[in-house]
Specification:
- By secondary structure, the protein is mainly β.
- It is 4% helix and 40% strand.
- The protein contains three helices and 42 strands.
- The longest helix has 11 residues, at 121-131.
- The protein is elongated.
Length: 532
Amino acid sequence: MKKISLYIMALLTMVLAACSEDYMATSSPQSYPQESAVQPSAISFTPVNIAAIDLSKLAKEGIIVDDTPIPLGSVTVAEGALPANTIMKAKVDISKDADFAKFSTIECESMASTNTVSVLPSNLQATYYNNYTHSPNEAPLYMRISLYTLTNGTSEAMIGNPQTAAFYPGNYTIAFTPVNEKGIYISTGYYAVRKLLNGSWEETKFKHSDVDVYDDPVFTGTIDALKDGDVRKDTEYYIVAEEDLAKFKGGDKSVAFGKGDGEALLKGGPAFVGPAEDGAAKYNLTMNMEKQAIVIEPEIHFYCYYLYANSAKKMNPADGETSRNYMFYKSDETTFTYTTMWPNDDNGKSVYNVKVWEREDMLANLATNTWGFDGTAKGTRKEQGNFAQPGQWLGPLTEGWYTFTITMDEENNKHSYKWTSIPAPTTTYTNISIIGTINGSNRDKDFELKQCAKAPHNWCLLDFELTAEAKLKFRANNNWDTKDWGGDGSQPISPVVYTLPKGSTDITVPAGKYDFYLNDITGDWTILKAVE
């Protein structure tokens, strides 16, 4: 018998190298090549005693720089057993499961001039990274060797029956460490640590899926904006890994992530600050630790209000309309107005025909949550007063043109109203539209609003979709010479409601679906994110 010597190499450890999509998982059942004429009894396989493979030791900056084949064993073939023009060939299956329920197959290096069965570190790395996990942490890996013959360089035949254990003469359970291809460390847990009014720190743990953090590097969390009583304060916070929390709270801020450029996280950087003036109640944080980036979204509960009409009175919306057509215009944080003609009902006996409701209640049709006059049904109405919920029907004391002003301080639970008489408008427009760089147009097409049937001089366009960011204005009678309304160019504008100081500058609105409102008496307008 001809004996081929065995070459033994020191055990290796690897780091994740550049991955290739060429290595795809193969799971049984599968098709097999034909069986070789060479019998298993003519073949002897001597495995290398491998306890661990650490690819990280072969890599630099996430790339394998030493791709010397890793020996797995050697093959001895009985004298004369191989046919002419035939060489041995080997493959190695790898799996995270001992039973190889899912496995991936790697072609071993050519055995044309050697009896050593070996695999390239780069091929092992790519297969593991593409098919199992991006984690660089050490984990058990199961490997098994299968042998083949290769005749004339193309005809492959397996040695033995793949349905038997003997088909795999080499079996290994190793401690495998892949290359950290991204070159980053990701903790299993992170905290947003907020500075309180007394100078101490309060931690809130980020949420994460059950998937390995290197395969799903996204963490999400929410922190409350800082308040002193009812007064918002700047909210200062850092991001801290679970294992560094004690150090941070002990005064070592160098272990924390602070604000970098743009959305970047910066280790040891300055604290994130949510400014008091942004009006946020909370901050929603989405952190990608693979990209070392964070997206911060202030959660601003923008309260908006609508008229709720008495179905038996003249302010009842016309067919095709709902309360959504009749939206108040925001003047400041807690003040909203609606200006129109308020008619008599019941042959001049009453103008008590509306209530007010907040958007969420309106959408849910919760009529019991409407706001009305704080008094009895037959009580004396006033030009101003407090709201009650649900309260009595509201209206000015006499028919006429009025601005109905409501103060809705939800945080302090203060709700009131006031009726202010105004002169009758002297100008009437035939139509109101929006125009600009809207959906491919270039200030050459008007998109019409509809006048509210029961509230003259109030116009709306609901559920209008902007397919891309647009610069636009409102205008009357499809004519720039008649009248137009814009903003004053101030930024930023709220992600929920776009209502800027009145002016003549284009209003920039991102892509999305919106409700557009304008009162042509006051010039007030609102562009509100539509309900999805």
